[in-house]
Amino acid sequence: MTILLAPMExxxxxxxxxxxxxxxxxxxxxxxxxRITDQLLPExxxxxxxxxxxxxxxxxxxxxxxxxxxxxxxxxxxxxxxRLAGLGPAGIDLNFGxxxxxxxxxxxxxxxxxxxxxxxxxxxxxxxxxxxxMPVSAKMRLGYLDDSRAVECALAIASGGADEMVVHAxxxxxxxxxxxxxxxxxxxxxxxxxxxxANGEIWTVDDARxxxxxxxxxxxxxxxxxxxxxxxxxxxxxxxxxxxTDAVTWAQLLPLVIDFxxxxxxxxxxxxxxxxxxxxLNFLRRRFPEAEVAYQALKTxxxxxxxxxxxxxxxxxxxxxxx
Length: 323
Known about the structure:
The chain is of the alpha/beta class. It folds into two domains: 2-240, TIM Barrel (Alpha-Beta Barrel), CATH 3.20.20; 250-315, Up-down Bundle (Bacteriocin As-48, Chain A). It is built from 15 helices and eight strands. It has an eight-stranded parallel β-barrel, surrounded by seven helices.
């Protein structure tokens, strides 16, 4: 069983990748997308979005990170992939799944699922531009409005030379609404000759078990489920090995929330700081009652200094108090 951490624009950035991979259970990460339009980006853009490039392409916990590119021009994507490869990522991933309208209007992300020939051209060009030893992978959805061309798109990725693909078990039109159509991943897996990773609507160990059974995939990618329950990867692996593992507790998680906040305040712009712990706590409160207390205490606070003081009080064992 291999567990990948999903790329999620505006949520699963290098800060959360750092913290979640410290918990354990994650074998590999994929970065949020680096948007490629019509120019060769300077190295500083790649390292700003994927700072793990400055530490051997791994998080501080040692988990490898593949850098993801998003665009629609095969030549420009290939040129940027070549430059990115020189920075030593654990691999290069291509985005054929982003459902955001602002991305799709410009022909990127899931919009490419209407053009399997362009997908093939992109994968082929990037594969040629990247050293043979460096993996090239891709992430796709089942389609744009429907899933009628899902296998065709997957074959375009595989025949273009990709080493692996992740399939999010929904179309662009279905966005993030449940359920995940894992049986369609099984169809894709049967059609291609490269490893397939199942993704979409995996929130619990039972979800992971059913996804594995239905899709036939031994590789799973988790996203929001891991943000809600940072111990999900460990629990899935334990279950797959028929071993027991204790759930991650709030007492174990709180120091990581503090570390998360420290990274936010030292690495992100001031305007972006106060919202980040509230964003994560909003997910965590689905799993931890203590996170609900923290979220309610901080949800109206925009001063990093006040957030910092409140979190410090928690480590001192004091009762939560309204700032």
